[in-house]
Amino acid sequence: MLYLKTLIIVVQLLSALGVIGLVLLQHGKGADMGAAFGSGASGSLFGATGSANFLSRTTAVLAALFFVTTLALTYLGAYRVKPSAGVLGAAVTAPVVASAPAAGSAPVAPSPATPASPASVPATGVPK
């Protein structure tokens, strides 16, 4: 599980850096007018409008990847392993019963330190 989180964090970091870089490479809306008067955009690698389409599509793909990795990290961060209760579905603890005295011995009176019934014993591990 740790390797999966690490991989998702690396993918998220790379997609975030890619989005930042591609947004900085793109021209603003006002740059289209300057390109129409021969500022050299037609001589670029992707043509006059090819670079805008390529950069905007790549930015959209990286932004979607960033969104998906963010959701995956949120899901993995909120995931908690629930302890299994076994076949019965609930952990049931039986009360401790004192063993009966041997047949030949005299009966012994209960000491005041031992409780009379299991209901009067405070439960351990229960918050107050």
UniProtKB/TrEMBL annotation:
Q: How does it sit in the membrane?
A: Multi-pass membrane protein
Which residue ranges are recorded for the region named Disordered?
Answer: 102-128
Which residue intervals are annotated with compositional bias (Low complexity) in the record? 116-128
Q: Could you tell me which InterPro entries the record lists for this protein? A: SecG
Localization (cell): Cell membrane
Keywords, alphabetical: Cell membrane, Membrane, Protein transport, Translocation, Transmembrane, Transmembrane helix, Transport
Give one Pfam family. Answer: SecG
Q: So where does this one cross the membrane?
A: 54-76
Cleavable signal peptide: none
What PANTHER family is this protein classified in? PROTEIN-EXPORT MEMBRANE PROTEIN SECG (PTHR34182)
What's this protein's family per the entry? Belongs to the SecG family.
Function statement = Involved in protein export. Participates in an early event of protein translocation.
Please give the name of this protein: Protein-export membrane protein SecG
Organism of origin is Paraburkholderia translucens
